[in-house]
Request: fold
Amino acid sequence: MPLLTSLLVLLVSARLFGGLFAKYKQPAIVGEIVAGILLGPAVLGFVHPTPALQGISDLAMFLVVSSAGLEMNLKAVIKTIRGKGLVIAFWGFVIPFWAGVGVGVAFNLDLMRTIFLGLCISITALPVAVRIMDSFKMLDTDIARYCIVTAIVNDVVALLVLGVILCLPDGGISVAVVARAVLVTGGKLIIFAALVWSFGWFLAVLERRGIAVHRIVERMVAIFGSDALFGIMITLVLVFASISEMLGFSFVIGAFFGALLINKELFLASRYAELERTMTSVSGGFLAPLFFASLGLEFNLAKMQSPAFIATVLVVSILAKILAGWLGGMLIKLPQAEAWGIGFILNGRGIMELVIASIALTHNFIGQGFFSTLVLMGVTTTVLAPLLFKKFVHPKLAPLQK
Reply:
């Protein structure tokens, strides 16, 4: 099917199914993923994953994450990372990772497949967590900040481990070789963190010296027109996303922090509201449904592994994340409802888990059957995350938001 026809079919179906699910008071994201499953190789076979569709999906993911970063407050996120958020992030990675390793050992998997299973189970997709929280109008809440901080930390740690694995030579592996790979990957992470901090520090210095950055933005808008506002923001975010990618990490991390640095002080209130409306229209109205429908396309039932292994992976991946989120929430003394809610949201693995799995497949660390099992896990947990949150948590949290 031609690319534009595929996009048309995916977009229309995603919006229809998303609207249908929303009509029956279910999150639209679930309907969008189901649309992709039905249209993809698993059921009807009308649309197949292609490099072109993957590129558009990456663009969608970029804008979804950028939109989230734009809506969140940098100081609040930093406060969460420095404070109790790291407790949830720690358990949110450690418990699922070792649960995955345990499954690998139980089914006699080799070392690489065991490690990649642990990494994929420990992942929480930042775009999925953002979209779920946004669908419940909860992006500016503590539970959203804890979920997003955990997703960021978990993804960064998983990508750090992945970077270490990819830096290992094809020959024998020794302690010295692993240590060198850890230092190289850790150094890249420090460089990126330093760049993000430096930009934030520069903006803070300008603010302290009484330099109104928004006036500079206004001048650029006056010269290039109101459309330049969106272009300025995208350019800045692209810079951070590109740096993140060049250093060997996912562009998602860079895009989020780049948008997060664009706080309201950089714009007049009316301009900032205009920018948010533009981002919402482009992302929520067009690219986000395509992104979640594309997740469903990756599902392929014909290439699954043994039923016992599939069932074990699904059960362990779901329970491990819920337990990790709940335990982390309890340790920082959150209400029961919020603790369970964090566990449910962290289950949304989505595209980040597929990124790790795709890299493992490309480098022949895993086979097609194992890859398909990981895809099933990613799609299933992404679908379940908003459903479980809506069923068991949101009714208890809704009165607290009023």
